[in-house]
Amino acid sequence: MRIIFSILFLVSLVAPSFGQNDTLVHQKIYFVKPKIELTTGIGLTVASFFGFRQLDKVAHLSKEDILKLNPNDLNSFDRPIAFKNPANFASAEKNSDLFLNLSLVSPALLMLDKNIRKDWVDLLSMYMMSHAVDNALYFGAAYSIRRPRPLTYNPNLTAEEKMGDGRSNSFFSGHVSFSSTATFFLAKVYTDYHQIKGLKRVGLFTLAAIPPALVGYYRTEAGKHFKSDVITGFVSGAICGILVPEFHKRLQQKKNLTFQPIYSPQFGGVAATLAF
């Protein structure tokens, strides 16, 4: 917990210092249509709650299913997770939820910057769309791939403790994916607005990787996911958190790109002008 609060405190100190370098003319970084994207993003996010409930039912394992599972059938990379101590499951799951929730609200730190908060509606729209895309990837994998969770292989649990709903939706980790989407969205937007490049950009994205990494660690300690589930979720979320803003950034660049025909006695052509 000390690590995550140190990260949030560091970002909160950095954000106002950059925000003081305000420009006379506020320039849009992203091209967003809030009426469409915010409504769509919220609608899909609300719908996802019903998707989670249905997924738990689809991911049901019976006692007969449990008795067929053998830890030796797991690959060597993931196999150790099947033998985690069940006594730590409850506390690990609680910690994973804590870091997930902190990650989800972390983009609110962007509002500390007066340049960025002017576009809060656009940013909220993009943030919701980032999660909508990530949810689509998650549900696409979780509904189509039936992978039992690590705890269902654990020899220290009874068959009754292993069976039930939500037991075969291990791939991939939604907690890690959602966390990664949020923190990488924060880093992407912040570095875009302040045109941060090089090692500073690498450093901020490295900080963004810490919260979802902690979520992933505790999800494995809780017997919920294998290491490969966590890695896949991390990558999926990072891609959504980065590429959705990048897509809107490129739309803005196209919006500012104008073409004008040029004619002269010597040549004819088209001049392209990119407004910054």
Helix-strand topology string: HHHHHHHHHHEE
Strand content: 5-15%
Tally of contiguous helical segments? 10
Runs with pLDDT <50, length 5+? 1-24, 257-274
Helix content: 55-70%
The shape, in one word, is: elongated
Strand order in the largest sheet? 1-2
Mean of residue pLDDT values: 86
- How many E strands? 2
Total domain modules: 1
**Which structural class do you get from the secondary structure elements?**
mainly alpha
Give the end-to-end Cα distance, rounded to a whole number of Å: 41 Å
Query: How is the main sheet built?
Result: 2 strands, antiparallel
* Radius of gyration using CA atoms only: 23 Å
What's this model, at a glance?
With 276 residues, the protein is mostly helical.
Describe this structure in words.
Keywords: Signal. This is Phosphatase PAP2 family protein. Residues 123-245 form the Phosphatidic acid phosphatase type 2/haloperoxidase domain. The chain is mainly alpha-helical and 276 residues long. It has helices at residues 2-19, 34-58, 63-67, 89-105, 114-117, 120-144, 159-162, 174-193, 198-221, 227-255, and strands spanning 257-263, 268-274. It has ten helices and two strands. Strands 1-2 form a two-stranded antiparallel ribbon. Helix 2 packs parallel to helix 6 (120-144) and helix 4 packs parallel to helix 8 (174-193). It is elongated, with a radius of gyration of 23 Å. The model is unreliable at 1-24 and 257-274 (pLDDT under 50).
